[in-house]
Specification:
- With 157 residues, the protein is an alpha+beta fold.
- The chain has one domain: Immunoglobulin-like.
- 20% of the residues lie in helices and 33% in strands.
- The protein has a four-stranded mixed sheet with strand order 1-6-5-4. The protein has a four-stranded antiparallel sheet with strand order 2-3-8-7, with no helix packed on it.
- The longest helix has 15 residues.
- It starts with 6 loop residues before the first helix and ends with a helix.
Length: 157
């Protein structure tokens, strides 16, 4: 039997939680290790999410965050400064360029981003338009309408 790894889809989408949880349970998929840079996707509320990316060595000037057509694109490009008189013997802190894309569900918007201690936090929220939110409809009964008509007729007479 074939095993389909759906973890790349799960890791790069936000707002499709129930769908991918059901697919994971059905397929029995396990999550593979993410590629560079490592990141977390957290649910911080009923309609709030946070993406946290570990981007040590990058400053806010090296990063570009763009949202286009339900796709969040985070790009990092480090401008290499000329290091005169220094030779790096071992480079363990990765500062290579990266581009990470996340598919956003409908009505998920980016609320803000912050860079703190080498972690990039991107806050997201699902904002459903009023026209699509459920609303309660009052139920009228025929007996109440009949009483109103009888009272109106008696007052007219």
């Amino acid at each position: 039997m074939r095993h389909f790894d759906l973890s790349p889809l799960y890791r790069s989408t936000v707002g499709f939680d129930r769908l991918f949880q059901a697919i994971d349970q059905f397929a029995g998929a396990d999550n593979a290790a993410p590629a560079y840079p490592p990141y977390n996707i957290e649910r911080t509320g009923d309609n709030a999410y946070r993406i946290t990316m570990a981007i040590a060595g990058f400053s806010d000037k090296d990063l570009t965050i763009e949202v286009r057509e339900n796709t969040l694109n985070v790009k990092g490009e480090k401008a290499e400064a000329a290091e005169e008189g220094r030779a790096v013997l071992y480079r363990g802190i990765a500062s290579r360029a990266f581009e990470r894309r996340f598919q956003l569900a409908d009505y998920v918007v980016v609320k803000g981003a912050s860079l703190e201690n080498g972690l990039l936090h991107i806050d997201l929220a699902r904002e459903i338009p009023e026209a699509l939110k459920p609303r309660t409809i009052a139920i009228s009964t025929p007996a109440a309408n009949a009483r109103q008509i009888e009272t109106a007729v008696e007052q007219a007479a």
